[in-house]
């Protein structure tokens, strides 16, 4: 029973990270109908800046919490600036163009990854826990850091649901995702909504990097693995479907947790691909259909 509880909690923690990551991917696809492979660079840039800036601020007399908050704020802000630049100088010219946006985003990935390797180096970096210690849940010790990750995923998923369902901007995003031409006829400023959706998605990618940084080794290529799993979650759940992204992310989290424990991590990855292929053969548009 203790092992089962441990595996469930681990699956929730892994799935929570993919939820934050895949919600951003889904939002971009829903609003702009593009596939953004550069989404992982927001994740990577934020994690790298936290790994570099935290010791800098801590070494200049700031408290642990303040140094962390400053590093996280700087990392997310830098990613938002990067996202704005990528949109203005690239993606806004390829909206609703799957092939063009695919080629563009792959080019951005190679370009940004080269810059990150040049300025941050290839060595892995570590980030200390934001909160030390653990708590016992059903006789299983869970670190506060992992609980923070799950809490952040719950809060921002609920917040995104509220924004999409109860705000003027969120309703405009939903209208654009259904039929952007009809939305424009109704007076919805499509370009403004597309930029807003892209920046919210960028923030979610950066947030995922911030909560992951203390839990894994950080390197200029760390976003690549999460990007692949995030896309699998989105495709499994259904492109453009927010509930689908959540279900797909939790599915991958539990497969990684149980498969990694009973077999090994490589088997878990193979199992994910096999199960996803089977699921898509039964439901080609994903478990929840296209949103």
TrEMBL record:
* Entry's Gene Ontology cellular component terms: plasma membrane
A single Gene Ontology biological process assigned to it is: amino acid transport
Membrane topology qualifier: Multi-pass membrane protein
Q: Which GO terms describe its molecular function?
A: transmembrane transporter activity
Which keywords does UniProt give here?
Amino-acid transport, Cell membrane, Membrane, Transmembrane, Transmembrane helix, Transport
Cellular compartment(s): Cell membrane
Its domain of life?
Bacteria
Its main localization is: membrane
Pfam families given in the database record: BPD_transp_2
The record ties this protein, via InterPro entries, to: ABC_transp_permease (IPR001851), BCAA_transport_permease (IPR052157)
Q: Where do the TM regions start and end? A: 6-29, 41-59, 65-87, 99-120, 144-164, 193-218, 230-254, 261-282
CDD domains hit by this protein: TM_PBP1_LivH_like
Please report which protein family the annotation says this sequence is part of.
Answer: Belongs to the binding-protein-dependent transport system permease family. LivHM subfamily.
Tell me what this protein is called: Branched-chain amino acid ABC transporter permease
Q: What species does this protein belong to?
A: Orrella marina
Q: Organism classification, top ranks?
A: Bacteria, Pseudomonadati, Pseudomonadota, Betaproteobacteria, Burkholderiales
